[in-house]
Design a protein that fits this description.
Chain A: Residues 1-20 are annotated as: Disordered. Chain A: It is a multi-pass membrane protein. Chain A: It comes from Kribbella rubisoli. Chain A: It is found in: Membrane. The complex is a heterodimer of chains A (528) and B (324). Chain A folds into four domains: 31-119; 134-178 and 479-517, Alpha-D-Glucose-1,6-Bisphosphate, Chain A, domain 4; 203-305 and 448-465, no CATH class; 308-390 and 397-442, no CATH class. In chain A, strands 4, 6, 10, 11, 12, 23 and 24 form a seven-stranded antiparallel beta sheet that branches. In chain A, strands 13, 14, 15, 18, 19 and 22 form a six-stranded antiparallel beta sheet that branches. Chain A is elongated. Helix content of chain A is 30%, strand content 33%. In chain A, strand 25 (478-487) and strand 26 (490-499) form a beta hairpin. Chain A contains eleven helices and 26 strands. Chain B contains eleven helices and no strands. In chain B, helix 3 packs antiparallel against helix 4 (110-131), helix 6 packs antiparallel against helix 10 (291-308) and helix 8 packs antiparallel against helix 9. Chain B has 324 residues and is mainly α. Classes of the chains: A alpha+beta (528), B mainly alpha (324). Bound molecules: protoporphyrin IX containing FE. Protoporphyrin IX containing FE (HEM) sits between chains A (12, 37-39, 42, 104, 107-108, 111, 185, 189, 192, 469, 472-473) and B (277, 280-281, 284). Protoporphyrin IX containing FE sits between chains A (12, 37-39, 42, 104, 107-108, 111, 185, 189, 192, 469, 472-473) and B (277, 280-281, 284).
Chain lengths: 528, 324
């Protein structure tokens, strides 16, 4: 029987003609297929994959940071559009990147599927006959004995003990071991396919959304309640969302108060009350950064936190035009937080405010700033706008930005009007337009809810791949032959071996086998 | 001992270890310098031929060099290895006390990762040095470790302190330690590949009638070095696969709610992985063995280094550590 390895090698021989034969469509297709599934193509595709992944780490990516992408487009008037055309702002979904890995995986399948049957046949193959010139092999020993009828039997025993598969021939034994290396290699490549299927499954049927919830408020899992929602391509809507709801009861955060890492966060904890379905009993859960809440396949993560000042705005007629918490977004590591308060229902003029919440405010040279992320000296520093009432447009508006196109900033003594409030304080607006009260503040948490099916498959695939890889890299396939021959009335014993993997180091084993076969007493021996 | 005392001990041990590694480096450099002098042309040629046909590393057969020089080179090599062991013990002490000072694993920021990763290089080297007779790698290894430690102390130093919440996870232990150890092995494999290229070139020159200096002759045959590089990298690759494609994603899933997000660090870890997969393929492809495979191994090493240094310093992403 011929040998697995050589046939495998034949299927990926580099010496294949590299020009297409003149054989019509079928011949041409076959040639293309053989090129695609050759080892060299695999190498080239692997390099292309590595190279293609790089720009995504250097050029801003839309799915990761869309703001940076638009900054880049404004800053680079000529380069920007070219990058955009090339898909460099979303490399990992671009056509050319997909093409590389799809080709790689077609090549992979085309490469390993045929090997499977070759391997299955090879598994049943017996170790081959010794080649004629054993002394040409890299591991070779020879010695002479008198008699020597039982040398081959001893060799068979010794080789079996060393877990070789042994075949007896006339005047020789052939032995082989390490069949599992190829099995490991096949397992590795197949498991990679498995892992990729798992990943693809997740990106098709999964979803991910984020929502900002002020402490005390709740959230129920419908698309409309998310601030930001990214469905997979095959995701079909609310029916695919598990119907849980939750309330953020409390949020605790601790910061380092001294030392060089002053201000670094030490611990966050959000206490949740949740119901898995509308009629399920309420349960509670402590949500930590590395400790998500798992609900019916979806997971809830704690991504971030911030402050939401609670304010009350009264209009010029003395009516409450806005009251409640307004989430402000942290701008730096000391949680100087920017936000807006809108009172479109205020009369006779609509009102709007924008500015900063400073958890630990001090007056710096450029005005008030926050110097610590915790709430040691909270202050609200804002300015106000007024405008004519506008008809409802129904268009969604950002809650973090004030559309100032139809608003005018309040002035006082010929300067822009600003105010600074501590909790509990109230300030009257200029021109008897009303008042604003800083009642206090709550904290908010940013939650992410996501569901990624196929993760277990991807994980199993990778773990199996590692198992196969270890077999493929650490199993040392090799062949050994022992041959006896009569020469001038004495028996010449030859022991030789051949490494069949990339490792070397058969010599020691050949020597050990030889030693076990040599008669214990003094006998003439020679070595090459 | 209090955390402050541990921190002081660590801050004392790390620079001391650096100095000892530098002494080891000097010793190995002397070993090489001594060998540059004597050249015996005819014998070298023969030895290369024997070395490439048989299994024995060429260095072991080299009687013909002037015996006095050879002895002095051996002595320098032994002293270098001894000093490396001494440096390693101090280095280990420095890393352990750093961990005790911070009350956690000592790889929460770049300074700590540098001292730990260079310790991993030392561990991998010292494990393989007796198994594969790797003394000839001493120059490269001590250079890399001393350089990393020196840079860490001078440019990256951060006082010991607790971690930001995102790093509170036992996956930090699993993920980073497997990355550090495979990184140590990538470094050793890269250094072996560099020397392989040097030696293979020298052997080709000898075959064309040229000469080879004694320090190069002390190296094993190019073929044996190729085998050593393969073994070290074959050890590193599954570990790296586990570290960045299993442990990393599991942790990212816990911490950020997605197991893969094309963060720059993730991208470069994948690129490193793909390059080493290409290395293993190259070795299995006729015509790519030897020189081209070694080149890929060196490229892989640079990619790994860039992932660690370049990505942290140049590119912003989720993986940027607290305090650099
Ligand atoms: C994602 C893509 C791939 C990765 C990460 C990968 C990885 C690997 C690794 C790490 C090895 C080393 C294991 C060993 O030495 O036995 C290997 C071996 C091998 N790969 Fe791949 N591979 C990929 C795609 C392919 C493709 C497309 C082909 C077919 C053209 C292929 C054919 C082979 C063969 C034939 C071997 C065995 C070499 C030997 O006998 O030593 N691989 N691969």
């Amino acid at each position: 029987m011929s040998d697995v390895k050589d046939r495998i090698a034949a299927s990926s021989k580099p010496e294949e003609p590299s020009t297409p034969p003149a054989m019509g469509l079928v011949g041409w297709l076959r040639w293309t297929w053989r090129q695609l599934t050759s080892m060299k193509t695999a190498l080239v595709l692997l390099f292309l994959l590595a190279l293609g992944a790089v720009p995504g780490s250097l050029v801003p990516q839309t799915p990761i940071d869309p703001i940076k992408v638009s900054d880049f487009l404004t800053a680079h008037k000529t380069l920007g559009p070219i990058y955009d055309k090339l898909g460099l702002f979303d490399v990992y979904k671009s056509a050319w990147f997909s093409a590389i890995y799809l080709l790689l995986f077609i090549s992979l399948i085309g490469c390993v599927v045929p090997r499977l049957s070759v391997y299955a046949k090879g598994l049943r193959a017996r170790p081959p006959k010794p080649p004629r010139n054993l002394n040409r092999l890299p591991g070779y020993e020879r010695f002479e004995v008198d008699g020597g009828d039982d040398v081959l039997a001893a060799a068979t025993r010794e080789l079996r003990k060393r877990r070789f598969r042994v075949q007896t021939y006339d005047g020789a034994v052939g032995a082989e071991r390490g069949y599992l290396r190829e099995a490991g290699n096949l397992l590795f490549h197949f498991s990679l396919i498995l892992a990729l299927v798992g990943v693809a499954w997740g990106s098709l049927f999964g979803y991910r959304g984020t929502v900002l919830v002020v402490v005390g408020n709740g959230f129920s899992n419908t698309v409309a309640q998310y601030d930001d929602f990214t469905p997979g391509r095959a995701f079909s809507g609310d029916d695919d969302l598990p119907p849980f709801s939750l309330t953020v009861k409390n949020f605790e955060v601790k910061f380092q108060e001294d030392g060089p890492q002053k201000g670094a966060a030490r611990e966050f904890k959000a206490q949740l009350a949740y119901q898995e379905t509308p009629d399920a009993p309420e349960k509670s859960y402590d949500l930590l950064v590395n400790h998500p809440l798992k609900l019916d396949g979806s997971s809830v993560y704690l991504l971030g936190h911030g402050y939401a000042p609670r304010v009350t705005v009264k209009d010029g007629q003395g009516n409450v035009a806005f009251s409640g918490p307004a989430p402000f977004l942290p701008q730096d590591s000391n949680f100087s937080s920017f936000g807006v308060v809108k009172a479109p229902d205020a009369r006779p003029m609509t009102l709007g405010f924008e500015g900063f919440f400073l958890p630990t405010a001090v007056i710096g040279p450029d005005g008030p700033v926050s110097v610590f992320p915790d709430d040691l000296n909270p202050q609200l520093v804002m300015t106000g706008y007024y405008g004519r009432p506008q008809p409802e447009t129904g268009k969604p508006e950002s809650v973090y930005q004030l559309d100032k196109s139809k608003l005018t900033q309040f002035q006082q003594n010929g300067d822009k009007w600003r105010f600074q409030l501590a909790p509990g304080q109230t300030v009257a607006l200029p021109d008897k337009a009303g008042s604003i009260t800083f009642n206090g503040y709550s904290r908010w948490v940013k939650l992410q809810v996501s569901h990624t099916p196929g993760t277990d498959l991807a994980l199993a695939g990778i773990l199996l791949a590692i198992l196969g890889l270890m077999g493929s890299l650490f199993i040392h396939p090799r062949r050994t032959w022992v041959r006896v021959r009569d020469e001038d009335g004495r028996t010449v014993v030859e022991v030789a071996g051949l490494d069949r993997g990339p490792e070397r180091g058969l010599g020691d084993e050949i020597q050990a086998i030889t030693k076990s076969l040599k008669p214990a007493g003094p006998s003439k021996q020679e070595q090459p | 001992m209090s955390p402050e005392t541990y921190a002081q001990v660590s801050n004392l041990l790390i620079p001391t270890a650096t100095v000892i590694y530098v002494l080891a480096l000097i010793s190995h450099a002397m070993e090489w310098a001594l060998g540059r002098a004597s050249v015996a042309k005819a014998e070298v040629k023969e030895e290369v031929l024997v070395g490439s046909a048989g299994e024995q590393p060429a260095a072991e057969a080299d009687e013909p060099v002037a015996p006095a020089a050879s002895e002095r080179m051996d002595a320098a090599s032994r002293i270098g290895l001894l000093l490396t062991w001494l440096g390693f013990v101090l280095h280990l002490g420095g890393v352990v006390t750093r961990g005790l000072a911070a009350g956690r694993v000592p790889w929460g920021n770049m300074y700590e990762f540098s001292i730990t990763a260079s310790l991993a290089v030392a561990i991998v080297y010292l494990i393989f040095v007796s198994k594969y007779k790797l003394q000839w790698l001493g120059l490269g290894v001590t250079f890399v470790i001393a350089a990393v430690l020196g840079l860490a102390s001078l440019a990256l130093y951060t006082p010991a302190g607790p971690l930001v919440p995102a790093l509170h996870s036992y996956w930090l232990v699993i993920h980073v330690s497997s990355a550090a150890i495979s990184g140590g092995a990538f470094t050793v494999g890269g250094l072996v590949s560099v020397l392989y290229l040097v030696k293979a070139r020298a052997e080709r020159k000898v075959l064309a009638g040229g000469t080879m200096s004694a320090s190069l002759r002390r190296l094993p045959s190019a073929e044996a070095m190729d085998g050593t590089a393969y073994k070290v990298l074959a050890f590193a690759f599954p570990l790296w696969t586990f570290g960045v494609l299993v442990a990393g994603p599991i942790w990212a899933e816990h911490a950020w709610g997605r197991y893969w997000g094309w963060d720059p660090k993730e991208v470069w870890s994948l690129v490193t992985w793909v390059v080493y997969a290409a290395y293993l393929h190259a070795r299995a492809t006729a015509g790519w063995r030897g020189r081209r495979a070694a080149t890929i191994a060196i490229v892989g090493w640079f990619v790994f280094i860039f992932n660690f240094v370049g990505v942290n310093l140049l590119v912003s992403g989720l993986h940027s550590y607290a305090g650099v």
